[in-house]
Amino acid sequence: MKKVLLFLIDSMMTDVLLNCIQKGKTPALQFFHRNGQLIPDCVTVFPTMTASIDCSLITGEYPDRHKVPGLVWYDPSEQKIVNYINGAEPVLTIGLAQCARNVVFDMNDRHLSSEVQTVHEELEEKGFTSGSINVIAHRGRKRYNVHPPFLLDAAAGFSLEGTTSGPTIFSMGTLVKPAIFREVPWSMSQSPAGSLGINDVYAIDVLIEVVRSGMQPDFTLIYLPDNDHKVHKSPRLAEDHLAQVDKQLVRFLDTFDTWEQALERNVFILVSDHGQTVVGSTEEHNVNLDQLLEGYATHQLQSTNIQGDELVICNNERMAYLYPLRDDLLFQVIETLSGEGRIDLIAWKEGEWAKVMNRGELLSFRRGGTLRDQYGTAWTVEGEWKVLDLYQDESGVIGFDSYPDALSRLYGALFSQDVPVIIITAAPGYEFLSKHMPTHLGGGSHGSLHKQDSLIPLLIAGTNRPFVQPARLVDIKSYVIQEVTTQAALV
Ligand SMILES: [Zn+2]
Q1: How far apart are CA 107 and CA 155, in angstroms?
Q2: Fewer CB within 10 Å of terminal CB in the chain, N or C?
Q3: What angle do CA 456, 458, 459 make, to 5 degrees?
């Protein structure tokens, strides 16, 4: 039977991919394109940040069900800001130990809801084998010892030894190595400078070794992060950055007798997690949240005490979660924000209703009702439809334009936690700035609900089974399970 491989290429964008293919810059992606189907406008979840998206990819659910709200969020049960590592400065401020613990242990074992099943759990329950290479969301049915390198322990001040869960073939940089016959030969990609193996070269090294060992699982999810870092720095060179990713795909394809043989043995699915928006180069393109909200006592990143604090700011680049810590503050904060023209959307919840404001106009919506959106989800919608650029087609179905799948995605983020929260997104060309968080003036950024951050390419080769359209990232899990099941039935 054919094996299924799902490559997650961080920040791959459709226009960049098509330009690369047209110019012959990415031979591997061109090969998959020629032998497969490309869906140019698949919609990812919101916030458009890798952490929440990875959890949606492996569970097939929006954040209101899988419960991982974003890359940076506030955990009221611990009275702490959770940060799955965004930039070096917050890591230094919060402490490496806590950040590493958040990403290596907490996300999979504490934050990711036990009410949802991951693709790995579901496949292995059905008797198939599953694999995960370098994906931060990796919950599975087996437990693994984490082996932090001495340097990481030394920097953290104490040992980060522990266990985490994963599928049968599980690799997490050099922290958890896959149980195969032969180890991946050492290279610089495994050094601290190579992010301890969390990079494209090492991920492909592991994949090659897994296939060579004869232990390739029925399904493997492989994360390729390098493109994201590069597009953040130089978005105008995005084609060159994607060409570098392609070199790694070529390296994998070249391990077969022919590229056609790779396709005879595997179904290839390649998808991005989000797009990126170019941020203007002048200071005013940073919307300074500390300044804008200086009238409130804000909870600081390194503090473990919220006594006397009024507001927690959790900055996710072009999106932010703001948590008012007193009931009377919600509308005061909304009022403070509503005068800022560089903010695009301001959203909050009232009971079961989601409320969203765009330049003073208001839209309310809740689950259930007589209206259907283009994905078949039922809604009740009141107020100004133009707030989320919604329209109704001839058959009365709700369609989306500037904000793809806006209702489910915004709802998913607002209801990912059971606490009062305000969501803000930055207008195109802008990004939020707050103490300790990385910014990208003149570079690329993401996080918002806007289509520029939200539409991703989905490329499938090696199978003719069509993908459900209009396509969403949350539908990939069921496609994978169906494909693995179909392949097994063909034998
Ligand atoms: Zn990024």
Answers
A1: 21
A2: C
A3: 145
pTM of the model: 0.95
Are 434 and 424 a contacting pair, CB within 8 Å?
no
Q: Are 294 and 460 in contact (CB under 8 A)?
A: no
Contact 50, 228 (CB under 8 A): yes
SS3 category, 378: strand
Ligand 1 mean position to 178 CA, how many Å? 26
Cα–Cα distance measured from residue 393 to residue 383, given in angstroms and rounded to the nearest whole number: 18
Element (H, E) at 372: strand 361-372
CA distance 65 to 230: 32
State the Cα–Cα distance between residues 348 and 350, nearest whole angstrom: 7
* Gap from CA of 372 to ligand 1 centroid (Å): 33
The Å distance, Cα 159 to ligand 1 centre, comes to 29
pLDDT per residue as tens digits for the range 316-343: 999 999 999 998 999 999 999 999 999 9
What is the rounded distance in angstroms from the CA atom of residue 406 to the CA atom of residue 389?
Answer: 9
CATH architecture of the domain with range 3-68+112-276+450-490: 3-Layer(aba) Sandwich (3.40)
Domain regions of the chain by residue span: 3-68+112-276+450-490, 296-435
Ion ligand 1 — residues with CB under 5 Å? 228
